[in-house]
Design a protein that fits this description.
The structure is a homodimer. With about 325 residues, chain A is α/β, with parallel strands linked by helices. Chain A is built from nine helices and 14 strands. Chain A folds into two domains: about 140 residues, NAD(P)-binding Rossmann-like Domain (Rossmann fold), CATH 3.40.50.720; about 180 residues, Dihydrodipicolinate Reductase, domain 2 (2-Layer Sandwich). Chain A is about 30% helix and about 25% strand. In chain A, helix 1 packs across helix 9 and helix 4 runs parallel beside helix 6.
């Protein structure tokens, strides 16, 4: 395939936007032209790509149209809601990192290793899932496929970079500019705003997006999402109950053989997934794989992944790669 | 009651030992004489108590005997195993913070609000539970009493001070003297050593001690224990399934009316338990109280408490207060 593509990144100056550009370069996508867009505030700044400095352009209603074929958005829900439909109407395929379209019945929510094959040329706006959800569902999909999952309990340990540059700054400077409480002195059991039912939006995302990606709303899912004073990579303590009985070594093997997953689970040498080791890598790291004896067919996992990479940028770029591989753009 | 008591603290120079001395002073225990013991390394140093400087003495086999009535140990399991039986044989009632006697069938494991009343004059060595367990079982005991608990899933967020001064130093200096990995860059899903079954000792403690304190081994319990880069106070995400159906407001009310518990659960104002707010306080703080819709009679809680206080020093001192109140020494 010698085809090359004209790609745009919307929200290029943000923490995720910059990571998308890095991953596009690392993954060596067949790109003929890369255009970068952001708000007026960032327009005129440059970002390096393949040895060249690309100037960021101000996003306008005219920005996203032919010859652009794919636009990867990471500029927040409001920007996505306004500009993604315009881009789609212009024939540009949008991969959207915001939560704007994730639960839209007419939009697909994609983790390429799990459901990338369901994409068609009809899909003009494709949603990229929530960061904590992506890294959790990747191992869960394997287990669900083999043993049928009845119930999942998530407790997360989420890095401050999930809140963007302001979150990183609060960690580095001990401030409370982004977080309401000092993240250097406490974990914060609130990510995003509260809903009437007592759950935060982040927790609801993990519940609803798990259902949608696995295509199975019968799975019981609950979540407690917590911010921790770590710069990069989210960790998730996952408790699972399956319908069918399993062999724990078989689960370890299935996970190890899944593309996108690296198993680190060598307790004799105190080896398990760690956030600083996952940072900058594309894979989802799974460890502490052990039977939960409190219930029949119970299983515990501890899952770590770079929230800016597989949790956002890498997954978006992989969706673009999938579009290209399936010749959908 | 004008009776006054001769009390000893063993391991007085450690992080927990110093907190015990602070709590003894704050709680105004009727103390006629306070003796402090530690290893030869700390002997000769002084610690203030009620405006006086008390000199730390070296612990020997002759240290713990009449007129000492109560000795509170916090000097590690080896010291407890060696010296607690000697003290007990000399008629001194030992309150032990180590794990040495917790699962001994002939020793009681006490959280005063839950089972302090079971103490008798026969109890010469009384075990103080693991820090994460204490703060978790306090709200759980109330719920178990009213609704009968079937299963508990714990995921912890434990402060570095649980690893003593060396743990605090690793956080403050970015070193790896105590922890194998840099705690400023990653949460660490290992506390204490691994067992053959894949669980850490800390996780097994939470499981076994929950059973023993509640006096009910039928409850399914599983745990994932994780160290986080916070100086003081542990947090625990607790998922519970009860046998009987419950009303969520009733649970909130029962918890709020339990001595030793403060409910902080006002999501309209983003109020929930936080580690820096719990630090230095005796109570267990409970919030994020909400129904888990993934299962019948499911419940989520987020529980925070100062691991050096209720998790160790305060609970030990409260056991001493119980011994005094019941006139057992």
């Amino acid at each position: 395939m010698n085809k090359e593509y004209h790609i745009a990144v919307v929200g290029a100056s943000g923490v995720v936007g910059r990571t998308i550009i890095e991953v596009l370069e690392e993954h060596e996508l067949p790109i003929s032209n890369l255009q970068l867009f952001a708000s007026a505030r960032s327009a005129g700044k440059t970002i390096p790509f393949r040895g060249e400095d690309i100037v960021i352009e101000e996003l306008t209603e005219e920005s996203l149209q032919s010859p652009i074929q794919i636009a990867i958005f990471s500029a927040g829900g409001d920007t996505s809601k306004k500009y993604a439909p315009i881009a789609a109407a212009n024939g540009v395929t949008v991969i959207d990192n915001s939560s704007a379209f994730r639960m839209d019945e007419n939009k697909k929510l994609i983790v390429p290793e799990i459901n990338g094959k369901i994409l068609t040329t009809e899909d003009k706006i494709i949603a990229n899932p929530n960061c904590s959800t992506i890294q959790s569902v990747l191992p869960i999909a394997v287990i669900h496929d083999k043993y049928s999952i009845e119930r999942i309990v998530y407790s997360t340990y989420q890095a401050v970079s999930g809140a963007g540059q302001a979150g990183i700054s609060d960690l580095e400077n001990g401030t409370t500019e982004n977080f309401q409480y000092p993240i250097v002195e406490t974990v914060i059991p609130q990510i995003d705003v509260f809903q009437d039912n007592g759950y935060t939006k982040e927790e609801e995302k993990m519940i609803n997006e798990t259902h949608k990606i696995l295509g199975d709303t019968n799975i019981g899912v609950t979540a407690t999402c917590v911010r921790v004073p770590i710069k990069t990579s989210h960790a998730v303590s996952i408790n699972i109950q399956t319908t069918k009985s399993f062999d724990i070594d078989e689960i370890r093997e299935f996970l190890a053989n899944t593309p996108g997953i690296t198993v680190i689970d060598d307790i004799e040498n105190n080896r398990y997934p760690l956030q600083h080791e996952a940072a900058g890598k594309d894979d989802v790291f799974v460890g502490r794989i052990r039977r939960d004896h409190s219930i029949e067919n119970g299983l515990n996992l501890f899952v770590v992944s770079d929230n800016l990479r597989k949790g956002a940028a890498t997954n978006s770029v992989q969706i673009a790669e999938q579009l290209i591989a399936l010749d959908l753009v």
